[in-house]
Structures are given as structure tokens and as C-alpha cells.
Amino acid sequence: MNVSTDDVTKTFTLTPIDIKKMAADMLVVNNLPTFTGRLLWSIYQTAVSHCMNCPTMEDRNRVFGAGSQSADIMFIGEAPGKVENEQCQPFVGPAGQIFNEALEAYDIPRETVFITNCVLCWPPNRSGSWKPSDLEVNNCRTWLAAQIALVEPKVIVLLGASAYESITGELDVKMYSVIDKKYILKYTNWQNEECAAIMLPTYHPSALQYQDDQKEKDRMGLTIGRAIKLAKQLTGS
User: For 85-89, 95-99, 146-150, which range has the lowest pLDDT when averaged over its residues?
Assistant: First the structure.
């Protein structure tokens, strides 16, 4: 998968996270065991289940990512909604229906990609749709970095501003300014190897739900479709 320098708008570097060290600390071992990706996923989920970074964490479900844990394409959204919280699965509510239709339009089985959010839980006393705060995004950034390290994607599709801000650290971004551009994300995988993924920012599917102008809604839908189509082309899926 090659992308010319002219195609790339900017390169970002994700702060490395030593997942093996985190796992070893959790297991309270003196010598680092031989970890497999499957074991690390299990330990990762246990760690997230015990996360207390945000207030009222004891009242929250953790909504882990879903799909192939070795997917070439990774989709990152904002946060779980009410339906996702109830089912403990990402993108299964109204926005998920839009997302699934977009995948089907390009013959991409949902189970072949990895789907997650930059915030993994739905706070109580929130409406069905909500935008996570900067603090919530920051508190979950380590968990997102760990997922990227474990999945090792070749392409990451960023669904919405929160996902873009979480990865890049650039706040108050206007989506129109980054859509249809390619970015590179350098990261370290779970074996502490240097990797890189192409990032494609686009609208979050929920944006279509709240758009009353049909022409604008169609335009946004086509924009999401372009990102999915390009992700498929770049990975040869």
C-alpha cells in the first residue's frame, strides 16, 4: 500500500503504549511472559472494565470495539449512544444502520473491519446522542491507542470531529477542512514495531440523522461513501 507524498496532507505520531508492560503489570509478574495477541485483547478488556478515569464510571457499560481483531480497515467513531450502551456493541443504533448500509454499498462485510469509538462508554443522564467532552476524549485516548496497536490497521477511517481530534490532538476542527484528505498516522504495534496507517476523515453517520436539508444529507452520505470506497481500494479488500 503506497501513497505518494503529494497525496498526504500531514503526518501524525501516536504516543507509543507498551501493551505488554501494561499486561505484565496487571498480571503482577516479574518476568514478561510470552504474550499472544488474543491474550493481550483479553487483558485489555479487563483493564478497560476497571477504568475509573471519568466520574461515575461504576455506572457505565464499556462498549468495546467489534469486528475482526486483525482488520486492515479500522473505523473510529465518537462514543456509544443509548442503544450501543444497552447492547454493548458499537454502531448498532440509528447511526449504525446508516453505517451498515454504507458498508453494504461497497460490499464490505461488517465482520471484516474493526469498529470502535474514541470514547468507550456512555455516561448516565445524557441524551440519546451526545458529543463527548475534551476531558472524556483525553481520558480514553490510551485505550484507543491500545486498540490501534492491537489491530494494526492499514487504513483508519475517522468518523466525525471527536475521532479526528482524539487521534491528532487538533481541537475545534471543522470537518469540511479535513474531509477528502489523506493523513498518515505513525504508531507502535503490540509487538513494539513501528507501523503506519493512512487516515481518512469523514462525517459521522449520525450527522445525516440531524440534517434536514435532503440535498445536504445526500452530499454527506456520498462523502462517507467516498472514504469507505477509498479505504477498500487502498487495502485491496
Answer: 85-89
Contact status, residue 117 vs residue 158, Cβ threshold 8 Å: no
Give per-residue pLDDT as tens, 104-147. 999 999 999 999 999 998 776 666 556 788 888 998 998 999 99
Q: Which amino acid is at 99?
A: F
pTM, two decimals, is 0.90
Q: Report whether 75 contacts 116 (CB < 8 A).
A: yes
Largest CA distance in the chain: 61
Residues belonging to the chain: 237
Q: CATH number for the domain including 23? A: 3.40.470.10
Sheet holding 8-13, edge to edge: 8-13, 182-188, 194-202, 155-159, 73-77, 114-117, 66-67
* Cβ–Cβ under 8 Å, residues 190 and 178: no
Task: Provide the domain count of the chain.
Answer: 1
Task: State the residue range of the domain holding 58.
Answer: 5-235
